[in-house]
Amino acid sequence: MKVMKFGGTSVGTPQRMREVAKIFSPQEGEQTFVVLSAMSGTTNSLVEISDYLYKNNAEGASSVINQLEQKYMQHVAELYTTEEFRTKASEFLQKEFMYLRSFLKASNFSATEEKIILAQGEIMSTNMVTFHLQEEGKKATLLSALDLVRTDENGEPDLNFIREATVKRLRENPNFDIYITQGFICRNVKGEIDNLQRGGSDYTACLIGAALQTDEIQIWTDIDGMHNNDPRVVEHTEPVRQLYFEEAAELAYFGAKILHPTCIQPAKFAGVPVRLLNTMDPTAPGTLINNDIQRGTIKAVAAKDNITCIQIQSSRMLLAYGFLRKVFEIFEQHKTSIDMICTSEVGVSVTIDNRSRLPEIVGELRKYGTVQVDNDMCIVCVVGDLASGNVGFETRACMAVKKIPVRMISYGGTNYNISFLVKAEDKKRTLQALSETLFNKD
Ligand code: ADP
Ligand code: ASP
Ligand code: MG
User: Fold this and answer.
1) 196, 236, 258: which to mutate for ligand 1, most atoms within 8 A of CB?
2) Is residue 145's pLDDT more than 70?
3) CA triplet 118, 146, 266: central angle to 5 degrees?
4) Domains of the chain (ranges plus CATH)?
5) How far apart are CA 276 and CA 168, in angstroms?
6) Is the CB of 221 under 6 A from ligand 1?
7) Residue 388's pLDDT is what?
8) 7: Cβ below 6 Å to ligand 2?
9) Which of the four, 121, 151, 320, 438, has the lowest number of CB atoms within 10 Å?
10) Helix axes 159-172, 201-212, angle to 10 degrees
């Protein structure tokens, strides 16, 4: 069995839905497990509806719901060819929009309601595609991700639950060629509707692929694989044909939007290869992510935005043990994870991407020394086989950024990454300089 995930643009119009349905229709005797995102733009509209409802602006929310409903009813007219399925789909969607409207009256709108609203995008797209497949006479069925994916008390995916629930549902629903489920949405430990954060459909696919130990996890999107730099920022980027699991995990975590930040971990632990493919060009080779390391190659560069740097300087750190533990405990207590770290004899600098507890963290750090905070920073990460034996590789990366004021450098944490902390305003020229030095073939 293969797991195939199709993102928002891949199911963004009725035409695209028809095209991808052809891709995931398996050969005789094979089965596919398909994970779908919401149609592109829908989750953003659902966020907008929730934002209005947080502000008690039912009128604003209602107008976004109306626009969305109009769009979906148009899709129904275009997607189905028979009256039977047009009726089925429009009745289903009308119920969905009635449900969304029921939140207009909610008095204390909270994160719980917001998560229910955000889940409707995937619920709508998967039902629409399943109806389409059934109309085409395919043996397809929909399994609700709300029954398959659950997070634990730490908000992390509960792998045992996912494995048992998915195997059970497949066993209860034999004799189908195509199983469809929603990406992104899940239940939390309290049984409430929750999600795996924006872009989380990739994560769903990798969790299910890992749970079922499938042959391959395919992430189908709107580009021909992982590029060697961010194509939204730098011109003339090129697809990378193969990545080692660790390299892909670093790129995803450090900002390559093509993959959800933590989706590679479950695939890596289960040893299931991940292939990134392009729905606009289905026969293109894409990128294969597996356990092979290409020695001595720098693969790609990525950037993570909205980084805050905190520096703590203390003469008490001089020759003292236990200082770093005390510093890290403060971040732990505030459930804030650290990305980069650099130390010297009298100071330590760390970066975080979540500022929600920054005032409390800084307040407590002040007990140990002078604290300086720099906002609007960006981590630029160079990924490849950067083991120390590959003499000169880190020098090439450093040479590329020679004209850029670099705030921190991290090298040696793993063999696959060298990271630079720069100001957000220097991101573009840093990425460009790295592409020119590391990947320019002239
Ligand atoms: P989907 O909706 O299919 O999940 P996303 O928009 O989340 O698609 O991810 C695909 C997009 O990621 C591409 O269109 C591209 O603009 C962006 N992207 C950012 N960095 C990279 C990279 N290094 N390689 C490929 N795409 C990237
Ligand atoms: N629909 C969700 C989002 O837009 C999840 C996803 O597309 O992966 O973030
Ligand atoms: Mg995505």
Assistant:
1) 258
2) yes
3) 95
4) 2-221 (3.40.1160.10), 299-438 (3.30.2130.10)
5) 28
6) yes
7) 80
8) yes
9) 320
10) 70
